[in-house]
Amino acid sequence: MFWGINDFDKGGIVKQSIGDEIADYLLTCADCEVHDISYSKDGILAAAASKSIFLKSADLGQLIFRGHNSFTTAVDIFPTSTIMASGDESGNIILWNLSSGEQIKSFETDPSPIKDLLFSADGKYLLSSSQDGFVTLWGLPPGE
C-alpha cells in the first residue's frame, strides 16, 4: 500500500510510530510538495504533487499521470472511480480516464491557480475554485 516518487516501482509499506499509534505512509515525496489528495470509496488514492498526479489502487496498480505544464494543486476522483480531475497553478483543469491514463478533456480557466476540485455526487458537474476567488460549475457531457 506504499508508493513513493523516488521508489515508485518498489512498493512496500512504511510504518512509523506516532505516539502509541502506527501510521502507514501511502505517499512520500522528499523533493516536492503534495498540494492535494483525494480518496475514493473504492480505495483509490490520488495525490497532486509537482507537475504530476500520483495514483495508487488495488485494481489499477500504481500510475503517474503527466500532462500539466505547471505544478498540480488540486485533484478529485469521479463518483464511479472511472475519471479523475486535476488542476494546476496556471488555472488549467484536466479530466483523465483512470483505466487508460489518457486525457479526456481539458478546461482552460483564468490564469489563477486552481485551489480545489469537486465532482457532484451525480457526476454531472465539476466544481472548481481558484485563488482569485472564483467558483466555477462545469457541466460534464453524458458518459464522462
Note down, in words, how this protein is organized:
- The chain contains no helices and 15 strands.
- By secondary structure, it is mostly beta strands.
- It has a single domain, classed as Methylamine Dehydrogenase, Chain H.
- The strands form 5 sheets. A 4-stranded antiparallel sheet has the order 5-6-7-8, with no helix packed on it. It has a 4-stranded antiparallel sheet with strand order 9-10-11-12, with no helix packed on it.
- The protein is globular, with a radius of gyration of 15 Å.
- The two termini are 28 Å apart.
- Mean pLDDT is 79; it is low at 1-18.
Task: Please summarize what this structure is.
Helix content is 0%, strand content 54%.
Blueprint of the fold:
Elements lengths: L2 E2 L9 E5 L2 E5 L1 E2 L5 E6 L5 E5 L2 E6 L3 E6 L5 E6 L5 E6 L3 E6 L5 E6 L5 E6 L5 E6 L4 E5 L5
Parallel strand pairs: 1-4
Antiparallel strand pairs: 2-3, 5-6, 6-7, 7-8, 9-10, 10-11, 11-12, 13-14, 14-15
Please give a handful of descriptors for the protein shown.
54% strand; four-stranded antiparallel sheet; mainly beta; 15 strands; Methylamine Dehydrogenase, Chain H
